[in-house]
């Protein structure tokens, strides 16, 4: 027979302290005398004691798990869009550094959304982070009513703590760059209008054009490469004389570049193109893509910091990070 797993009582006996004292030490409480704490930790190491996380969670009411909920289907999350993998990787790393575990949950259907609500309200996680929410999603409103810390990546449609980037200002930067380059007929490939990022980037485009006394020319995509190509073809059909396009993300901009090439338009000579996000592929398009840098890693890191910080200790429930125009050869 194998040796029995060391118990809390065995550690207490080895350290010559009470079981309650050992419990306080292994649960990270700071009220224990340093010398006694050292003795307990020595006993833990000598005996090879491993705390029972299930039992500990019953006492502390903490699971050390944080849910990351993505309101997209698997085909979108595990696609060529690097946003999702970068956010998941950053969140997992930041939580691991804090001694926490990320629980990835996809919620693109009413059934999946109901399961997420049940899971979170059942006390299985200590917090929840929301990513890629759409206007009709019930989750932001549902978690806002729960007694669990919740933070959104991006501005949600309801009143909820969030970390966003300056979508309006970033889009405005892109359009002003095109205007400053002498472009007259500047179109936009907008993102989904049931997502606040899509709405805000379109607002920034329209505000900047209005200030420059230019008219809006808009087609709507869904943040995918294929939708960018389709939207670009429609824009060329509607206004063959357009000489610039702002795409609300880089994948749609890459699709637009492909459509322009097939239509015989030279970039940037005939049509200048600016994207948004500054994904890795933006440096390797032909020509390299001018774009607005969306600080994904910093935004995901700030989201983790916010969800792990007790509400009363936060400087703010709303964080907006700056964007930066990255000028390359496409505009």
From TrEMBL:
Residues 6-60 form the HTH lacI-type domain. The keyword Transcription regulation applies. InterPro entries: HTH_LacI, LacI/GalR-like_sensor, Lambda_DNA-bd_dom_sf, Peripla_BP_I. Pfam families: LacI, Peripla_BP_3. GO terms for molecular function: DNA binding. Keywords: DNA-binding, Transcription, Transcription regulation. The keyword DNA-binding applies. It comes from the Bacteria. CDD domains: HTH_LacI, PBP1_LacI_sugar_binding-like. This is LacI family DNA-binding transcriptional regulator. The lineage of its organism: Bacteria, Bacillati, Actinomycetota, Actinomycetes, Streptosporangiales.
